[in-house]
């Protein structure tokens, strides 16, 4: 246990050294908590001192008033008793109230003639040292060391009508109620302080996590930058040998070769073309993310692009025994980059060929209101509702793991397609029923003076 604590302490010191912001946060927490503690205890001291001063002032006024009255009624204790009861009812802090007289002028043996506690009347007070402080013009207060709160004993001399010191007034006050109120305030302040401390600790922990996240984010950004640089470098480096491979294949096609060798060359060329498309996808992803793809927007009719894509894709469809055709009902002119529209349709038709084992693929075009709709329909395996939600995400692929192993692809094509369509001012969506087939729908607004997009430079 001790070694664990030591290791944790050392680890914490290293973390503080590597993250100055954590040190500032801890220092701030200590300063805030220390300030509240200092202010709290200062407030307690000031409150108690103020309470004592207030009690002294109130007792002084009480003594002045009572002494001025009692001097004339030292021979009428019943009147004094009645006044004492009235004062005690109005001042609940008073626990003891006595009037004593000095028989024969002796302060050493004072006799109590009136008291709050009637059982004390007639007794000789055995506190001779107390009566030495019985001054005619001054109240003298003693703090008492008793449990249950603060107690104060106050004595004041009483003079007779002739001005001679004839007796004394003694009161004892208990400030437990006032102290209880202060203690309640202290407790509530302590609760607030503890809550504040917990909040500061929570904020500190959160700040610590935020710093961790910031460090992780920084590292992830660095890794992402390294990844992008590697992909960009690798993609450019791969294109050169791929171009050479396909060039050598074209040269060999002119030679006198056996059918088996020609078929092998076609397979090599097909795989090289697939790899070239993969490299192109990787480069497009980087360019699209950085906004570096340029579009040459023109007012064109898309049916010519559709026919060209279908014609180029006929061979791959025939290899799988699929019927690939077009159904162009009406047309219209739209502002697009023809080469990028071709890239979009090649991706969509290529996906349909990949995921369709039998049946047909139809590329339809028709006008829907103010838009031209291009729909790629297939009778393939379709998609579930869950798969459709993630369809246009990066590296998203549909089908089971076995199907994904048998069908080539990176899951980037549809993300690239969607991004290109949207950057040309269009929209793309999908409709599919699992086991029945899929429709990919691309829509572009019909060209007119109000919706002509600004050509990208």
Structural overview:
With 457 residues, the chain is of the alpha+beta class. It is 55% helix and 18% strand. The chain is built from eleven helices and twelve strands. It has helices at residues 2-18, 20-70, 77-90, 128-131, 176-253, 259-290, 303-319, 338-354, 385-389, 401-406, 413-423, and strands spanning 94-102, 110-115, 140-144, 151-159, 165-174, 298-300, 323-328, 334-336, 360-368, 371-378, 427-433, 437-445. The strands form three sheets. It has a five-stranded antiparallel beta sheet. A five-stranded mixed beta sheet has the order 7-9-10-12-11, with helices on one face. The chain has a two-stranded antiparallel sheet with strand order 6-8. A hairpin with a 7-residue loop joins strand 1 (94-102) and strand 2. The longest helix is centred in the middle third of the chain and has 78 residues, at 176-253. It starts with a helix and ends in a 12-residue tail after the last strand. Residues 453-457 have low confidence and may be disordered.
Produce a short descriptive summary:
The protein is an alpha+beta fold and 457 residues long. It is built from 11 helices and 12 strands.
Describe how the helices and strands are arranged.
Layout: H1 2-18, H2 20-70, H3 77-90, E1 94-102, E2 110-115, H4 128-131, E3 140-144, E4 151-159, E5 165-174, H5 176-253, H6 259-290, E6 298-300, H7 303-319, E7 323-328, E8 334-336, H8 338-354, E9 360-368, E10 371-378, H9 385-389, H10 401-406, H11 413-423, E11 427-433, E12 437-445
Parallel strand pairs: 7-9
Antiparallel strand pairs: 1-2, 1-5, 3-4, 4-5, 6-8, 9-10, 10-12, 11-12
Helix pairs in contact: 1-2, 2-5, 5-6, 6-11, 7-8, 8-11
